Amino acid sequence: MTASNYCQFCSVVSKANGEDPIGSANATDTWIVVELPLPWLKERLILDSPLSPAFQAIREGNTKLTAIAIAPDRQYSIPGYTRVFCYQRPSQLFAQFDKQEFLVPEDELKLIVSALLQRTTLDFWEKYRQPTQNIREILVCTHGNIDVACARFGRPIYEKLRKEFATPENLRVWRCSHFGGHQFAPTLIDFPTGQVWGHLESQILPALVWRNSPVIELRRFYRGWTGLTKFEQIVERELWMQHGWNWLNYYKFGQILAQDTANDPWNADWAEVRLEYAAPNGSATGVYQARVEVCGSVMSATNSGEEAIAVKQYRIV
């Protein structure tokens, strides 16, 4: 690979120019995650796969729904059956997503996806439910059919996590399809917290997995918590840096009080943010309020091979 080709990877451009990944995680209330064999061709995945009902709901306006495919795993998977995860926001104020896992016959896959989307009774599916609420799931994007950066940089991170950190009883690591943010590859989602990470480097994986190092070491890799929207995520990171790892256990809820109306909401120049919090045992509750403002821009490419464009960067004031 030549140097010029290497520099056409969107994530190389983004990282080299110092783009801050915070605020780039898609705010989501419901995740539908389905085990599907490769290859994940974009059109087929959207229009002709068990995840099609979820993608249809997204096209119809469900902006707080995310659908993801995960690759079968030699150790985790069971022939003839398909694993389905559903992570849902449990309430307005929360710390992590509620997890449901099912292991269903392949010919019933579309039916359970539709049932989860419609939030109908799941009595019929109880026989397939798996008692895995205690297992942490990490999903690493390796979806090269969407952007080559995810395959080029995501695969090594996946392999290191899978080989050195995964344990069937406590932590499973999966290859997954696109969930946004190629320019931050390698990128992953950590469930049940729903935190998203990007520009990952192998040396910071122990801190991310074991959570036994100062959180400041992870600041520049944090894309945000999917329980909040863009500007709320920017504020939440600052609070996490102040409170440390215990902050992950706090129930949180964000709200935009006001923001720049001259630009589209995602690209606003400023926003006033309110963030409520509560300790799980009720020992502490409170509210933070902050203003997020543009502090400059960097050149970044959204997709590999495309021309770089100016992207706004933000700070708390």
How are the secondary structure elements laid out?
Layout: H1 3-6, H2 10-16, E1 30-35, H3 42-47, H4 52-59, E2 65-70, E3 81-88, E4 98-105, H5 109-118, E5 136-141, H6 148-164, E6 171-176, E7 188-191, E8 195-197, H7 205-210, E9 222-225, H8 230-243, E10 251-259, E11 270-278, E12 285-300, E13 309-316
Parallel strand pairs: 1-2, 5-6
Antiparallel strand pairs: 1-3, 3-4, 5-7, 7-8, 8-9, 10-11, 11-12, 12-13
Helix pairs in contact: 4-5
3D structure, described in words:
The structure is a single chain. The chain has 317 residues and is an alpha+beta fold. The chain has eight helices and 13 strands. The chain has a five-stranded mixed beta sheet with strand order 6-5-7-8-9. α4 packs parallel to α5 (109-118). The chain starts with a helix and ends with a strand.
Spans of 5+ residues with little confidence (pLDDT < 50)? 1-5
> What is the residue-averaged pLDDT?
93
Residue share in β-strands: 25-35%
Element pattern in H and E: HHEHHEEEHEHEEEHEHEEEE
This entry's quaternary arrangement is single chain
Task: Note the overall shape.
Answer: globular
Counting DSSP H or I runs of 4 or more residues, the number of helices is 8
Q: Please give the alpha-carbon distance between the first and last residues.
A: 43 Å
Residue share in helix: 10-25%
Q: How are strands sequenced across the largest beta sheet? A: 6-5-7-8-9
Largest sheet: 5 strands, mixed
- Number of E strands: 13
- Helix/strand-derived category reads alpha+beta
Question: What is the alpha-carbon Rg in Å?
Answer: 19 Å
